[in-house]
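FYI - complex with RUQ, inputs then prediction.
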Amino acid sequence: MKVKKLQNLIGFALMLVLMVSCGGNQNGSTGPLGGGGAAQKAYVAPGEYDEFYAFLSGGFSGQLSVYGLPSGRLFKVIPVFSVDAEKAWGFNEETKPMLETSHGFIPWDDSHHPELSQTDGVPDGRWIFINANNTPRIARIDLTTFETVEIIELPNSGGNHSSPFTTENTEYVVAGTRFSVPVPQQEMAIEAYAGNFKGVLSYVKIADDGRMDIAFQILMPGFNYDLAHSGKGKSDGWTFFTSYNTEESNTLLEVEASKNDKDFIAAVNWKVAEQYIADGNYEEMNSSYLRNFYDEHTQMASTEKMNTVKVLKPEDCPGLVYFLPCPKSPHGVDVDPTGEYIVGNGKLSAELTVHSFTKMLAAIENEDFDDERYGIPVLNFDATLAGIVKSTGLGPLHTEFDGDGNAYTSFFITSEIIKWKVGTWEVLDRVPCYYSIGHLMVPGGDSREPWGKYLLALNKITKDRYLPTGPEVNQAAQLFDISGGKMELILDFPTIGEPHYAQAIPADVLFENSKQIYLLEENQHPHAVKSEEEVKVVRDGNVVRIYLTTIRSHFAPDNIEGIKVGDEVYFHVTNLEQDYDVPHGFAVMGARNSELLIMPGQTETLLWKPQYPGVIPFYCTDFCSALHQEMQGYIRVSARNSNPEIKWSVGIDE
Ligand code: RUQ
Ligand code: CUA
């Protein structure tokens, strides 16, 4: 009866949507409330799937969130660089090593730019990479499990911002430092910056199985390396990094780093770099950094300490790096799908400067150099210029492309997106953003074959868009339909943290490969138990290991005795379920870390130190069945100096 009524209601709502959309608003959304036509374009009916997965960085949340497009529905928050009590990320014994660095355990970071792995310049759905800006690292997320499986630290970097942009076949992801620092690190007067601080560009090799390794670093002048993109097609083999503060100032950068009329895009030929490395023309530098890897079979993360990196110095490596002059303090650098055009977005100018790759090669060939900085040739500006987009927008930041020869550039200061034609540089359309757009994203928009169709604006300021929630308001994303030539706003949705960049991929690329359970027979966790017969409690000095299992709706064992104050108790919990979407949780009173959330076939471990004698309950936190509330147990804790017998049980012996 009730179900029927609900269906009728949905039907009625649908009719209303259709009626409104067929109504007068032919141009779709115009006003801040949007029109019916627009609503229909973002509408994904209950039970239907979205067309795209979108991955939005969390910025200062350190995480990565997964949304559906065009609905804007949130599917998952993937913990990456910040501890997450919901999923025990950084709290359970299995994942603690993932957040280890050479500075110690770091529970937070600022992650900006997700980047999908590519094959032939097209996102392939194997992995997504993301940078940590503050304590320089790159993470790799496996897109079968949507879990972080590897984090590598970047030595000699002062802030990993221009990262982790991939090469056309995911040979490398790059990592340029935002802040230059003394390399190797050493104490020095801050005012000795110019000439003494260096900026490293790291090339992280990606193996066929995804494992990351620093192949080499390039020791660049002490500028700030802001963003990057690799070449594609004809420009495959090159990476382009924007830089600012080519003045090499160490104070009041808003003034001091805005003096030069032009800064640079550094064009790095990584194939030439590979040759220098192969020929042994590099310096091996002592630099320690950690590599953390989560093994899906043992379900444990481990940390490996590395001690050296191979370093290339541009002044000793002709042909490795060239500087393309670019108007004042550029931010994003974006390469069009053909690989011919390199767009530099001078954030303090109104114009977009587009360089030609073909002209760049000719200028290099003709040695058409204007200058040299620290042994790096500065190419003649006019010799490499393809064209200028005279947009009249202010503060261009980032550019994405559709599959039809158009580009879309975000303008922070004038808070708008401008669509322009690649090759003719004419402005085709412009729309306002609410408010102050940073990055923008078209599905596949930085690849060789953009899927187009939608454009997502990632805005910095929300102001009056949503119901107020005190001084802190969420950042706002805005979705545009770009299939009709004009950009049409179809949806606003709030985001988590501060998304900078995002990526999207058609749902069917990932859908089939998404893992549903971990096979119990493949679980090689050293403390897994595969059945209730195997459960046990083992004391070794003051370390007690409790091997537990979960299945709807009980723990085995659920009565445990023989624990003492002062013990270090490890709960090794294996979820015996082999059905999709049946995790169990585990929480114990007084635990100073978090809950566990254990997927079917998985084992996770919680450390607990009982503080006083008593009987302490534990329970399942994830509503797993009608009798979820009955899923609980007790631990008897005896006094420190007592000698209790270890006992465990489940159920009553007849
Ligand atoms: S950066 S918009 Cu990392 Cu452009 Cu933020
Ligand atoms: Cu298991 Cu609730």
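The two ends are 45 Å apart (CA to CA). The pocket of dinuclear copper ion (ligand 2) is lined by residues 550, 553, 584, 620, 622-624, 628, 631 (CB under 6 Å).
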